[in-house]
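pasting for ref
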Amino acid sequence: MTLLALEHVSRRHGRGASERAVLREVSLRLDGGELVAVWGLRRSGRSTLLRVAAGIEPPDAGVVRFAGRPLSPHGGEALGSGVGYCRPTLHGAEEPTVLAELVAGQLARGVAPPQARAETWSALERTGAEQCAARGPHELDSAEAVRVGLARALTSRPALLVVDEPTKGVDLLDRDGILALLRALADEGTAVLMSASESTDLAGADRALALSGGQLRGSLDPEELAPVVPLPRRASA
């Protein structure tokens, strides 16, 4: 069953002489439990595509449907109500600890304090970030920030997890663990849409799509990219 559908979506940034088409007639479908990676070079439009898919940015043309319903043209309505968006950074965090920051985010959504704390611990444990709970958000290394960012998105138990460059700035050993975690989340039934700028980030994806010049080029054989990496279909976190 199709969980997310982008239908002929276009998006432009800037005005006047500086205006440029970021997305051009992009169509994409994602099923529950599927892990799809969108690969593209810098300024290819991959981050914009994910923000539109999550309902953060509205498309200028076309429609985005989540669970069969069009997202609001104002964007953002699905966040916390079936869609979890993760940009692996805690910049702007206001609370002294990771635990307090994640709990505060849920309290702002109206979650009762005991449930907010329980959901936070569950999400931190699921992403392997429980050891970060008592630390300050700005004390985390890159891999820890990614896992905490994923935990923050998972606190709402989303059906769709949208993750922008989950391995950016992460070393090779930690990268493999993060990709395995995303694969495991998909195997558990959560649809995962992620962006990637390196071919090594495609490991474990059910589908790899190429985005160039704002156009989605369709399925991409990872062997067309260098360096070539194996794509395990199942991995444990």
